[in-house]
Specification:
Blueprint (H helix, E strand, L loop, with lengths): L16 E5 L28 H14 L3 E5 L9 H9 L5 E6 L4 H11 L3 E5 L5 H8 L4 H13 L3 E8 L8 H11 L2 E6 L9 H5 L3 H9 L4 E4 L9 E5 L5 E5 L12 E4 L5 E2 L10 H6 L4 H13 L7 H4 L5 H4 L2
Parallel strand pairs: 1-2, 1-10, 2-3, 3-4, 4-5, 5-6, 6-9
Antiparallel strand pairs: 7-8, 8-9, 10-11
Helix pairs in contact: 1-2, 2-3, 3-5
This protein binds S-adenosylmethionine and iron/sulfur cluster.
Iron/sulfur cluster binds next to helix 12.
Length: 327
């Protein structure tokens, strides 16, 4: 039966989490993600149409995917995004979630909840207006904060994702812990990674998980948790023995590849099985030439079998165009 199918890679890892980038466009220009000018956006005609995303998602789900994350670029800038989230929520998934920069969340929070989304990750690197502007090159902090509030009001589960950067937001690490405790949101710190537009960012801005934890431990009692859920690429900690937990993704200092359960589909239908790996087959092109489900499944199966054992970001950062892949 389809529901029992399992997608496994060549190292025996179960792949049950699909991240779909629905657009490479964005209303911010985060310095660690893309430059202000000169971004080579995917031509409109090459972007997956919603019907194509839904068709391909059905195929992935039939093969064993249990969780889908909608990401981008900025997913909320894509027209009629609630149509897509509603259609995806009809699939037999354990979880349908979205990652957004929060700029448009105030107007979308209710609709996302109604369309079947239960949890939203909001990327927010600074709660200081000046710093926010310098990181994102846009003046939209107030919109994001209103978006977070609207998501809470709508009853969406919330997690704040913070890319930690030396000399930028390192002084705000504990502010984020306080904010998350107060607002009862989840919280996750992410080590900055090199990417196509700026392979040097790590040398300039890297703030490792040990240092992030030390900053938090200076103000709070930090307790490591070893009950990391299957497929998780983060390490979890709690503050004291209370219910509040936060995570740290140390892609650089302590990669969690052995637990990775992810496959990614970019906005043009190209599959990627590792952030820093090569681009795989283009499923949109397969649909356009009328490929049958069985053929598409075989292609997905093959690329998943070839998923690398470990990422090679030290040599392959140039492969990663964040706004196309979706983080
Ligand atoms: N626009 C949405 C957002 O920012 O949440 C979704 C797409 S964005 C590419 C997904 C995630 O990737 C965000 O949390 C962002 O902070 C993270 N990201 C982008 N570039 C990064 C980098 N160089 N290192 C670490 N994380 C990065
Ligand atoms: Fe846009 Fe997200 Fe990239 Fe920032 S990280 S520029 S919000 S896609």
């Amino acid at each position: 039966m389809e529901e029992n199918r399992k997608l496994q890679d060549g190292f025996g890892r179960t792949i049950d989490y699909l991240r779909i980038s629905v657009t490479d466009r964005c209303n911010l220009r985060c310095t660690y993600c893309m430059p202000e000018e000169g971004v080579g956006f995917i031509p409109h005609e090459e972007i997956l149409r919603y019907e194509e995303i839904i068709r391909l998602s059905e195929i992935f789900v039939g093969m064993g995917i249990r969780k889908i994350r909608v990401t981008g670029g900025e997913p909320l800038v894509r027209k009629n995004i609630l149509f897509l989230t509603k259609e995806l929520s009809a699939l037999p998934l354990d979880e349908l979630v979205i990652t957004t920069n929060g700029v448009l969340l105030e107007q979308y929070a209710e609709g996302l909840k109604k369309s079947g989304i239960r949890r939203v990750n909001v990327s927010l690197d600074s709660m200081n207006e000046k710093t926010f502007r310098s990181v994102t090159r846009r003046d939209r902090l107030a919109d994001v904060m209103r978006g977070i509030e609207a998501a809470r009001q709508a009853g969406l589960g919330l997690k704040i994702n913070v890319v930690a950067m030396r000399g930028i937001n390192d002084a705000e690490v504990t502010d984020f812990v306080r904010f998350a405790l107060e607002k009862k949101t989840g919280l996750r710190f992410i080590e900055v990674m090199p990417q196509y537009y700026d392979e040097e960012i790590v040398r300039k801005r890297f703030l490792g998980s040990e240092e992030i934890l030390a900053k938090i431990a200076a103000e709070y009692e930090v307790v490591p948790k070893d009950d990391v859920s299957e497929g998780s690429v983060e390490r979890l900690y709690s503050i004291g023995d209370g219910g509040f937990r936060f995570g740290v993704i140390s892609a650089i200092s302590d990669p969690f590849c052995k637990n990775c359960n992810r496959v990614r589909m970019m906005a043009n239908g190209v599959v990627k099985t590792c952030l820093f790996g090569p681009e795989g087959p283009n499923l949109k092109r397969m649909l356009l030439r009328g490929a049958e489900r069985g053929e598409i499944e075989r292609v997905i199966q093959r690329v998943v079998m070839e998923k690398p054992k470990k990422h090679t970001l030290d040599t392959n950062a140039g492969n990663l165009i964040m706004n196309r892949v979706g983080g």
